[in-house]
Amino acid sequence: MNLILFGPPAAGKGTQAKRLVEGRGMVQLSTGDMLRAAIASGSELGLKVKDVLARGDLVTDEIVIALIEARLPEAEAAGGAIFDGFPRTVAQAEALDAMLAKRGAKIDSVIRLKVDDAALTDRIGKRFAEQGRADDNPETFKDRLAVYNRQTAPLLPYYEGQGKLTEVDGMGDIAAVAAAIDAALDA
């Protein structure tokens, strides 16, 4: 099964993906984690990514797609992938569909975590205070959220038109969100 967890930064995608990895044996393909690893490596790519994220912008499709494609064999061996933070645009969704089709696979389900922007801003402020991640800076986060809302809105009708979109209330506690996701996947 290939699943997309869809929602803005700090919506809880990573938390739910980790739970699904443990419970269902899937591989989490988190672009955020992959990009942070690139930054930590100190490579030329990592320095580019660091600069882009510090401005609150999104990295190019080419970089993100290459990172995802490199991890697909691992996901296939595990029986499926959880795409976390990808795709963010219709162009990325189309590239993902084409990439998977070449491998005889497809996206099976898209779970959208519906959340409130004001609550996310509060959540990110707490996470920044606790973890100090540079990409969680509250000022930068506002830019990331605006970019997310502007660029990813077209993905809703894209996946809805394919009959793959399920919406889950992402504002509940972790257990309630987990139960709603499990119910959607088991349906």
UniProtKB/TrEMBL annotation:
This is Adenylate kinase. Residues 30-59 are annotated as: NMP. ATP binds at residues 10-15, 127, 172. InterPro entries: Adenylat/UMP-CMP_kin, Adenylat_kinase_CS, P-loop_NTPase. Its main location: cytoplasm. It catalyses: AMP + ATP = 2 ADP. GO terms for biological process: AMP salvage. CDD domains: ADK (cd01428).
